[in-house]
Amino acid sequence: MHRQLLSKTNMIDSVIETYNGKPIPEAVEAKKKQIIKERDELKNKVDSVVAILEIPEVKEMMDNNRERDGNVRILEHLTQNHNFTVDMVDTLFKYSKFMYECGNYTVASVCLYYYRNLVNQADPNYLNALYGKLASEILLQEWEHARDDLLKLRAYIDANPFDTEWELVTQRAWLMHWALFVYYNYPKGRDEIIEMFLNQQPYLNAIQVLAPHLLRYLAVAVVTSKSRQKNSLKDLVKVIDIERHSYKDPVTDFLTCLYIKYDFDEAQEMLQKCEEVLSNDFFLTAVLGDFRESARLLIFEMFCRIHQCITIEMLARRLNMSQEEAERWIVDLIRTYRIEGAKIDSKLGQVVMGVKSVSIHEQVMENTKRLTLRAQQIALQLEKGRQDKVKAN
To answer: Which residues contact 73 (CB under 8 A, 6 or more apart)?
Structure first.
């Protein structure tokens, strides 16, 4: 299977390694010769192109390229002063793609950076170049560069150069999948997931219509975020409640049990299932510890809030601690996480949670938000139906 996947690329040396000293088929040897020949031919063509692009004044122009028409200006400068041609731009793209397929992501990244600064956004390969540059940085694990490329790609998609609304929604869904590679490896990346997936309505719409499975990654980001959890949890639970009919997994079910059903026993069961899911999820395995700690805190906070008053003795039994240890643990918990309204009455040996009243204005705002969200989802579903009908005809 591994060899079968590699055979679709130009990583021929990796294919040969899979034979483990066994005779190499003639077809594989022939493919290697063909790849080397093609690489040398492309390199001979691209060397002169790169030599021009690495002239200090040209590099400076590219590094400082922030204007919308900056690419046109750079290309005009190269054409007038360095005998640069349009064919050279095409050669640069072909070489970038070829080196990417060979697994040389450093060279591919550099060449795609140059290419991106030379063509305008109407170029048919511009979007491919943006994705190729992002993929190269992800594979190199250069997360700062990958984040910059992700933001450039997002800006291009949000400018909506597409023919239909449905194509725009599809591109946003794809972008969020790519974002997982970056944001689950980037410092404060989970906060940026919340900002993009939950707080930006067009992206939330794309999740609801095309990719409800992304709710797992959004939910983990919200639960484990120390700075945005409190402000985002309520909105997340609303979305999960709306989407329960179309998607659920242990992570979303955990929040459903805790904030919709108020079933603490089932929430505890789901938390155990969450640990199994996260430990086997490529993106989430590294945040399992954070999730476990934050989820337990949510259970504790919600349990105390529902009951308003709970004895430290009972908590001590549940936590398998002495009453004195439990009291210290709760004090540290309230102090560290600033649990709103939580107080300890040491004389009575109780944890008391204050009740926060919700104003009529807040209730109206929340219901309006929910209706708006549902209306946008229906509109996108209708657009999807129209597109499917057009394709069928």
So the answer is: 61, 67
Q: How far apart are CA 390 and CA 211, in angstroms?
A: 22
What six digits make up the tokens of 287? 């945040």
Angle at 140 between CA 289 and CA 71, to 5 degrees: 125
Closest CA to 10 of 42, 32, 41: 32
SS3 state of residue 66:
coil
User: SS3 for 342?
Assistant: strand
Residue 278, both tokens: 């996260």
The per-residue pLDDT for range 147-171, each reduced to its tens digit, is: 999 999 999 999 999 999 999 999 9
Give dist(CA 50, CA 84) in Å, integer.
11
What residue ranges define each of the domains in the chain, with the CATH number in brackets?
Answer: 34-159 (1.25.40), 162-308 (no CATH)
Decide if 304 contacts 310 (C-beta within 8 A).
Answer: yes
For residues 203 and 239, what is the distance between their CA atoms, to the nearest angstrom?
A: 13
Instruction: Please report which helix (H) or strand (E) contains residue 352, including its range.
Output: strand 350-353
Lookup: tokens for 297: 């805190």
Cα-based distances in Å from 56 to 60, 62, 114, 270: 6, 10, 13, 58
Say what the pTM is: 0.82
- Beginning with the edge strand found earlier in the chain, give each strand of the sheet holding 309-311 in spatial order: 309-311, 350-353, 342-345
